[in-house]
Amino acid sequence: MEAPGLRLLVPGNVRHNSGGNAYNAALLRALADLGVAAVSRDVDGDWPVGSAAERQRFGRLLTESDAGQVTLVDGLVACGAPDELEAAAAAGVPAWILLHMPLGTHPELERRALQAAAGVICTSTSAAAALRERHGLSGLHGTAGVGKIHVALPGTQPAPPAAGSDPPHLLALAALLPNKDQLLLLRALSELTDLAWTASLAGSDTADPAYATQLRQESERLGLTERVRLPGELRGAELDAEWAAADLSLLISRAETYGLVVTESLARGVPVIVREGTGAVEALAAGTPGADAAGTPAAGAPALPGAAVALGEDPAPLAALLRRWLTEPPLRAEWRAAALAAREHLPGWDATARAVLAVLGAGRFRNGDGKRNPGIDTAAGAAGGE
């Protein structure tokens, strides 16, 4: 008799290589490696919220699970469809929510969805904190009995150290979207044309075509086209080549719950500049023993592999920090050494999978004949609650 499996329902309308998509895919692979039957199912719709017909199809999908199967729903779908989660809970098949980021709009829909869920697994402590601040833990005890908001931090795929370039090469790897604020980065770079460097702003240019066009026009207006590439979304060998050439990575999103690209950078020994006050600071500290989620190292702990910079609309603070990095070899060496050290301490995706299993109840994924799976059994106690 086979053990019950897990199915992950994901938004079908997110086609670009987002952090949420990367997390979902890596989690499924890691669960499979631990012996858990795990499958992904696209949920077509204009999520979050979607149309009435799209929500009805989602509701039918929630109640179609096999006996004993656990359903985990990406928060982008779940948090805009509370009626459907409530109906599934009433039918005795409550779903879990895997929340990458809180729903920016419709907080009441989100609250009801969280109340109806069997539980909530956040992919960062900043996402969990945002839920706690918005709704309060006391407000998350609904029909399915949500007790705690749990956290399963992203893992990291090992990668070879980047060789870097001469002159230094800067990489901003993110979809071209206003939230990622590549426009601010271009304007900061325009203040550094007296120095030697190159840069790539690599990411989907179809997620927001108007913004991508604005970036290309601004790069031309600022005279940066000979220095800055905007190659669109890269995969395979082209992406590997960008990473190998990188000396510094930047993720200066206005809002970010974690930022997988930060730990992907550290896995290659590439230091990172992030925006202060975002979840990317937690990712920057992921491989630094003793550093907390706010990026504050404990006394005597190693330095962070990069920096968090306070940013608004003015590019000057970012330009000043980049100028320091470009003109001070000791600072470049310090950040590089810290990134190489952090590389040795990053958790793998197996840790993420075990954390998820610990929340869901590792015992339910054992074989029906009672046989134990060592990978699953080690999941006990691997998750954190918020």
Structural descriptors:
Rossmann fold, alpha/beta, seven-stranded mixed β-sheet, single chain, 2 domains, 386 residues
Give me the secondary-structure topology.
Blueprint: E1 6-11, H1 19-33, E2 38-43, H2 52-62, E3 70-74, H3 75-78, H4 82-90, E4 96-99, H5 107-116, E5 119-122, H6 125-135, E6 149-151, E7 169-173, H7 182-189, E8 198-202, H8 209-221, E9 228-232, H9 236-245, E10 248-251, H10 260-266, E11 272-275, H11 280-284, E12 306-309, H12 316-327, H13 329-343, H14 349-360, H15 374-377, E13 384-385
Parallel strand pairs: 1-2, 1-3, 3-4, 4-5, 5-6, 7-8, 7-10, 8-9, 10-11, 11-12
Antiparallel strand pairs: 6-13
Written description of the protein model:
By secondary structure, the chain is α/β, with parallel strands linked by helices. It has two domains: 188 residues, Glycogen Phosphorylase B (Rossmann fold); 175 residues, Glycogen Phosphorylase B (Rossmann fold, 3-Layer(aba) Sandwich). Helices cover 38% and strands 15% of the residues. It has 15 helices and 13 strands. The strands form two sheets. A seven-stranded mixed beta sheet has the order 2-1-3-4-5-6-13, sandwiched between helices. It has a six-stranded parallel beta sheet with strand order 9-8-7-10-11-12, with helices on both faces. Helix 10 links the parallel strand 10 and strand 11.
CATH superfamily of the largest domain: Glycogen Phosphorylase B
**Which fold name fills CATH's third level, the topology of the largest domain?**
Rossmann fold
How confident is the prediction overall: mean pLDDT?
Answer: 88
Return the string of H and E elements: EHEHEHHEHEHEEHEHEHEHEHEHHHHE
Distance between the termini: 36 Å
Main sheet attributes: strand count, strand direction, barrel closure: 7 strands, mixed
β-strand percent reads: 5-15%
Oligomer type: single chain
Q: Which CATH class of the largest domain?
A: Alpha Beta
What is the overall shape? globular
Which class do the helix and strand fractions yield? alpha/beta
